[in-house]
Amino acid sequence: MPTVPPASTAASATEVDVTALLERGRTLATPVLRAAVDRLAPPMDTVAAYHFGWIDAAGNPADGDGGKAVRPALALLSAQAAGAAPEVGVPGAVAVELVHNFSLLHDDLMDGDEQRRHRDTVWKVHGPAQAILVGDALFALAGEVLLELGTVEAGRAARRLTSATRALIDGQAQDISYEHRDRVSVEECLEMEGNKTGALLACACSIGAVLGGADDEVADTLETYGHHLGLAFQAVDDLLGIWGDPDATGKQAWSDLRQRKKSLPVVAALAAGGPASERLGRILAEDAKSSDFENFSEEEFAARAALIEEAGGREWTAGEARRQHEVAVRALDSVRMPDQVRAQLVALADFVVVRKR
């Protein structure tokens, strides 16, 4: 999939080593994350370890793909934006990562996804019951990791995380309900994605600052940055969900079309009007009634993707990713922080909209 270049910004990903930022977040958060997972009762501890890529399906040590680590990187930068050391944000980074992976375990089961990060999903290997139980356990661990700090700041951070988690669940419920509707408005889709993706990313952008003693005004502004960054992130995910390279995404080709998701490219294409939009609407309505949908050929999914593109859904979504990126970066102007930290936050925003997985 072609990248979605951001508009010109004060700092770019070429001026900041984004890979190093992501690796720092992974390096500082992983030992604490593993210690938290080790608290789980068997076999949940090994099932979670498989999900995180630390072991393979047979229980042997593995060096699997643990994800992009954007949220931990943001949590550490959040602490620095408040004038604290990055290590102050580690419990927040771990808590957010636990909630994120709780949602992935449940989402994979609900969506019927058989692949994540180039491996079979937990429900496929260990069964649906373990996917549900381990997801629930990770959610509980997230609260423990924060609250065992025993500070006022930890309580404030836990409240923000709880609110973000509730919004995330609201977004997942909206996403599922939209799959059974013929039409969803662009506004409804953006609201759903703001809940499902934006809320937790927003929390990651403020939780380190809260642990570092920042007031609510600073934390709220960092959340605004994170919320719009989350919308940009999801817009790119929606593009990858249709046109992404399976070798890069670790998912099937046309994965969102296979699940009948009302993602931004689909919704924008249906709202655009014109011959391609109208034809797409008729085809998707027929698909919803089809008993043979799961057996559609690659060519049939490719034809639907081509109609979405012809109707303008792909171009509109790429533009929306850029717009949300710009709003996110502008929000940083309202927070006093070291110039280097600001540049790193901008570079991470750039990374979100140019990634290929």
TrEMBL record:
Annotated family: Belongs to the FPP/GGPP synthase family.
The entry's keywords: Magnesium, Metal-binding, Transferase
Domain of life, per lineage: Bacteria
PROSITE patterns documented for this protein: POLYPRENYL_SYNTHASE_1
InterPro entries the record matches: Isoprenoid_synthase_dom_sf, Polyprenyl_synt, Polyprenyl_synt_CS
Swiss-Prot/TrEMBL GO biological process terms: isoprenoid biosynthetic process
Gene Ontology MF terms in the entry: metal ion binding; prenyltransferase activity
Matching Gene3D superfamilies: Farnesyl Diphosphate Synthase (1.10.600.10)
Protein name (record): Polyprenyl synthatase
